[in-house]
Write a structure and sequence with these properties.
It is a single chain. It contains 5 helices and 7 strands. The protein is an alpha/beta fold. It has a single domain, classed as 3-Layer(aba) Sandwich (Rossmann fold), CATH 3.40.50.2020. The chain has a 7-stranded mixed beta sheet with strand order 3-4-2-1-5-6-7, with helices on both faces. The radius of gyration is 17 Å and the shape is globular. The two termini are 29 Å apart.
Length: 157
Amino acid sequence: MVDRYSGDVKIDKIFGFDARGFILGPPLALALNLPFYMFRKKGKMPNAVAGSTYEKEYGSDVLCIQRGAVSPGDRVLLIDDLVATGGTLLAGVELVEQFGGVVAECACIVEIKFLNARGAFEAKGHGSIPIWSLISEEVLTVAGELPEGYVDDGEAH
């Protein structure tokens, strides 16, 4: 990720999503000498501005952004662990744009492509914003071999 964002993708700030974006974003921001900001769920951050309610694959939520975190013209990278339907990313895009910022790219560890986040981006007029994933989804679907004698406990994990 450091190599990618040291090159052609110009960014001024990095925003991570509650909560695993908080693990990925700060080390990248430190390596690139850029500020890091958080998108938090409503009620968790003082001096925050709330966005609109958005839908996720398992319900609805509201994101908040720190007041003053985005200035007009800021080029922002949004980062999270996983992209599914794109609802969370789109909520972040809309908050950044509300303050005059530009989302240069969205980054994640993996995108679950069959949930069609890119289609949601197109439908909302954000199809030009790239979604980049570190790991190809195909890697996650490779069948693995279980060790001899392995017994599944039958519990959801």
